[in-house]
Amino acid sequence: MGRNGRSATVERIAPKTVGADLLDGVPRQRSVLPAPPPARPLAVPRVRPWLLLPTPARTPFTLGYAALLAATSVLAALAPPSLVYALYQGSSTDVTHLVRSPAVVLLTSALWIAGGLVSPYAVAFVLVLTALERRIGGARAACVFLAGHVLATLATEVPVGLAVLAGHLPGTSLHRLDYGISFGVAASTGALAGLLRPWLRWPLLAGTAALLLNDLLAYTDPMTNWGHLIALAIGVSAWPVIRRWAAAETPSHLHQRGDR
């Protein structure tokens, strides 16, 4: 009761929280951002030198043929010279043998490497045929090799026979010793170039052609040297067919086959 008899209403005011006015001055907490993902390392292409060599799964033709050539090269190195010469002569694709038994000598002449395993054509055979077979398959790679071997042989030996008939060459030219895998390797090199990227294709073709032209200019064996250039041209002329074969073979290479 108040002094005048009136009731007095006492307004109670809740005490102000100490420090509440200071909270507005506290800076807002920054939201925590997720850590950025670690930078991916630059993709470095893996170097797989074993892909340059034939394998049973991917390149059976090249592997089997290389083993056969290795065996005949060892035989040529160890057998008596008279026997080796007789084998070479019996396998020679000279005009006389081509007239008598063309199929036999065209096949048997491709069983030898002129110069043996140390010949540059032995190394080229393994590298080129492996790469070609990986891209178009074994049967097709064999067709390319055989086409170069047979067609270049006929392109060089038939003119010799005609020149002998016309009297421009002596009769001894009909028995000229001719054997080896070089025509097939040259044709396979020309065919493989058509499947490579331009920065590999043109240096490979230019380098191969330069080596073959240098041999031709040396004039030590012009018929064989012309055959090498003809075989290279045969491989280049097959690019449209080779590229269709490679396009048909690519899915099986990617999804069905594997290296062993």
Please outline the helices and strands:
Layout: H1 20-23, H2 60-78, H3 81-91, H4 95-100, H5 102-108, H6 120-136, H7 138-165, H8 182-193, H9 198-218, H10 222-237, H11 239-255
Helix pairs in contact: 2-6, 6-7, 6-8, 7-8, 7-10, 8-9, 8-10, 9-10
InterPro entries: Rhomboid_2
Keywords: Membrane, Transmembrane, Transmembrane helix
Transmembrane segments: 63-88, 103-132, 144-167, 179-196
How would you characterize the overall build of this protein?
- The structure is a single chain.
- This protein is mainly alpha-helical.
- The chain has one domain: Rhomboid-like fold, CATH 1.20.1540.
- The protein is built from eleven helices and no strands.
- Helix 6 packs across helix 7.
- The longest helix is centred in the middle third of the chain and has 28 residues.
- It is globular.
- The chain starts with 19 loop residues before the first helix and ends in a 5-residue tail after the last helix.
- The N terminus and C terminus are likely disordered.
